[in-house]
Design goal:
globular, two-stranded parallel ribbon, 260 residues, alpha/beta, Rossmann fold, single chain, 7 strands
Length: 260
């Protein structure tokens, strides 16, 4: 298994402390999802592997108190949580499509997607939209649900199943950017209801449950190991928003790579 992390040493330490079976067989490569060059370097290493069975898009940052941008000019939460994963997936997709066996792409979203709609007119808070930490976080997680739905539509005739999910509210380092006052006020809305092992259950189900690999279930959003409906915007019944978001992502990613 291959894992990516900003700090290779910290990632290895976490695996060791978690006492994960077979952690000595894990390979950890540096991966900074804010930086397109780092993503490209990570993807190149993955492409040397014989096969990709599961691509789990699990990294993220949450509720940055101040508006920040990546080196490529993306609002940092959507830049990390969505654009970084979008680019990584694109780099690995041809290899996965060429494989003759079934594989899956799993995107970890959040029930917090309900707190922020995708606004394609000002997705990076550079115009008139006032920045809000939870609005930006929710937008990034909404974007991942829409991304998976569009990707599933594009891969309907392939061997790849795409799913997004809410893992549950888990006590991890994700909330490190929250100050004590903000944590006290807002985190009760997202009270930790699972330990790490329980929180991983829906991701594991997304990888291995054969029932999700059937027509009509690809592109679904999961919670507690079963399909649930996201908010109305992310249901995107007309399939319009997911396509528009994809086009914006492609255009902005292309521009960022040209300036890199």
């Amino acid at each position: 298994m291959i894992s990516g992390g900003r700090s290779v040493d910290a990632a290895k330490k976490s695996f060791k402390e978690a006492d994960i079976d077979g952690h000595k067989n894990l390979i950890v490569y540096e991966l900074d999802l804010e930086n397109l060059s780092s993503i490209k370097s990570f993807a190149d290493k993955c492409l040397h592997e014989s096969r990709i069975d599961f691509l789990i898009l699990n990294a993220g940052i949450m509720a940055l108190p101040k508006l920040e941008y990546t080196v490529h000019g993306f609002e940092k939460q959507i830049g990390t949580n969505h654009y970084g994963h979008f680019y990584l997936t694109k780099l690995l997709l041809d290899k996965m499509k060429a494989q003759t066996f079934k594989s899956r792409i799993i995107a970890v979203s959040s029930k917090a997607h309900t707190r922020g709609k995708v606004d394609l007119t000002d997705i990076h808070f550079k115009k008139d939209r006032k920045y809000d930490a939870w609005l930006a976080y929710g937008q990034s997680k909404s974007a991942m649900i829409l991304f998976v739905k569009e990707l599933a539509d594009q891969l309907v005739a392939s061997n790849i199943t795409c799913l997004s999910l809410h893992p549950g509210v888990i006590a991890t380092g994700l909330s490190k950017h929250l100050g004590p006052v903000i944590s006290h006020v807002l985190l009760p809305l997202f009270v930790a209801d699972k330990n790490v092992a329980q929180g991983a259950a829906t991701t594991i189900a997304a990888c291995f449950d054969p029932s999700f690999d059937t027509e009509g279930k690809r592109g679904s959003y999961l919670s507690d190991c079963q399909i649930v409906e996201p908010n109305e915007q992310c249901q995107d019944v007309s399939k319009t928003l997911r396509k528009q978001l994809w086009e914006v992502n492609e255009k902005e990613l292309h521009a960022a790579l040209q300036l890199k």
